[in-house]
Structures are given as structure tokens and as C-alpha cells.
Amino acid sequence: MEQYKATNPIVIGVDHGYGNIKTAHSCFKTGVTAYDTEPTFKGNLLTYNGRFYQIGEEHKEFVSEKMRDDDYYILTLAAIARELDFRKTNRAAVHLAAGLPLTWVGEQKEAFKAYLLRNSTANYIYRGHEYHVEFAGADVFPQGFAAVAGQLRDFTGVNMLCDIGNGTMNVMYINDCRPLEQKCFTEKFGTHQCMLAASERVTRLFGTVIDESTIERVLRYGSADVGEKYLNAIREAAVEYVQGIFRKLREREYHPDLMRLVVVGGGSCLVKNFGQYDEKRVAILTDICATAKGYEMLAEHKLRRNGGMV
């Protein structure tokens, strides 16, 4: 693998979700299991500072502060490695571009930035390859908004942006191409709530436990290789969850005849698969990597303004 020798840092966007970590070119589960000795299975193993971390086996529990433990730092290292693989290099100066829920940015931005830049360098092994990273800086942007920042000129009139993640649902008004900071809201109503409801329904109706991956497949694609009664139970839970999304949007003064709705994030597929809405007035952006790509765009623009990129 060639060594990176450019003078400018590589800007890498990382969307630190509760369900999945997304970069511009990858997506993997937000799961970290730490070991003091090397585990048997090494498919997604990351070795750092003498410890071993299995990446992506489970989802991380919802926490209101992502800096509470080391998990998101380790997951960031894995995300960087995947992006460096895409660029065919294992050594780079990296400028991180990340984000937080809309209403958390003001209070937690500096702490999260310091968390990501806790070390000036990182040397580690991921999936059998060595990586050498120098941290050149970091920016933290509002979640959701980043996914549409490149299309702001299209947001004429009154618009509601709804970013549905695994842990939270973030709502922002964008009126005449301008985001309204005073009209941003964060609800703990992410897709994990739907997963729990679907699992509970199957257990209650049929006295059995269904694998989470099966539920996830039904929610994402509308179907899975299981019996019809189980499919119907999961679909019914999904319909009720999406109805709950629109109920919460109405509580934030959503009116389909008076504004346009744009839905982004991993939960957008649930609205597309199980929601009832006017397709002429509701746009569903299903690119799960859109927010990470938006972080990169915003950071690159900021660096150019400040003379940090050529």
C-alpha cells in the first residue's frame, strides 16, 4: 500500500450514529467489544495501544454524550482506516469532519472536537493492515443539515428537514434557503424505538425471539426470508412507528399543505416503505452516507476560506 505524501490533509467525514458509523464510502455497525487478548475471530479487529477491539458486532446504546467512553474514538479510527483504504494509502494527515444532533451542537461541539483530537497521532492495525494517522484538525457540524447543505438553493419557501437516526430524530426549519437556528428540535425517537416495538410485538404475538438482523432487513427493504405472520407483525410495528414520526412532526407545526418535508438519515427508508404521504411534497433522501459527505463538503469549504487547502 502506497504511503501518503501530500502536503494538504485529507478531509474525512464521519457520521457517528448510534446504529451505524458512516463515511463517504462505507457504513458499518456502531459496535465495539474490547479484549485484553487477541480474540479468535479477526475479521473486523482493530488493535490499538495494546488492546484488541472487535468492530461492528452490535449497536451502541443511546447516550446523550458521545464522549462518555472510548468507543466512538475507536470507531473513528476504524472509519478513517476504511476511507484510507478507499484512497489506497495507509498513512495520512487527516482533518476530521463530524457532527452532533442539531440541538446539542452549541453545548457539546468543543468537547466533542477535543475528544476526537485527544491524540496528535494514532498508529494502529485494522483488519490486518497498519495505519499511521496524523490529526491535522477537526470540525463539528449540525447533523441532518449537512446532508442537504449542498442543495440549500433548492429550499425556497418553507421547508422542514427531518433527520431520522438510530437514536434520535432531528427537526430543522429551512426557510428561503436559510436554516432557522431557533427552530431546531431533537427527539429521542430514532429507529431503535421501531426495532424494539417490532421485537416486542413478535414476542407478544408468537412467544418467540426474532433476530435483530431480520427486523432490520424488513425495515430497510420491506421484506425478509421469514414466515408471513412474522413479516406482518414487523410491518405493523413499522407503520405505527412512521405514524408516530408524523405525529411528532405535527407537534412541531408540520403542515403538508403549507411546507415541504425533506427526510434524511437511516430512518428515511422506513418513511419510504411504510409511510403515507404526498410524494409531490415530501422528498426522501435514502443515501445513508449523505451526512458524512456533507460534513466533508462543509469542512473543505471552511478550510479553503481559511487558507488551509489549495
* Multimeric organization: single chain
Q: What is the SS-derived class?
A: alpha/beta
Task: Record the strand order, biggest sheet.
Answer: 1-8-10-9-6-7-5
| Outline | globular
- Uncertain residue segments: 1-6
Biggest β-sheet: count, sense, barrel?
7 strands, mixed
Beta-strand residue fraction: 25-35%
Tell me the span between the first and last alpha carbons.
25 Å
Number of helices: 8
How many strands in all?
A: 15
Radius of gyration: 20 Å
Helix content: 25-40%
Task: Kindly describe this structure.
By secondary structure, this protein is of the alpha/beta class. Helices cover 34% and strands 28% of the residues. The chain has helices at 71-86, 105-116, 145-148, 191-206, 212-221, 228-251, 268-274, 290-305; strands at residues 10-13, 15-16, 20-22, 27-29, 32-35, 45-48, 51-55, 91-100, 121-126, 129-142, 158-164, 169-175, 178-187, 260-264, 282-284. The strands form three sheets. Strands 1-8-10-9-6-7-5 form a seven-stranded mixed β-sheet. Strands 13-12-11-14-15 form a five-stranded mixed β-sheet, covered by helices on one side. A hairpin with a 4-residue loop joins strand 11 (158-164) and strand 12 (169-175). Helix 4 packs antiparallel against helix 6 (228-251). Mean pLDDT is 93; it is low at 1-6.
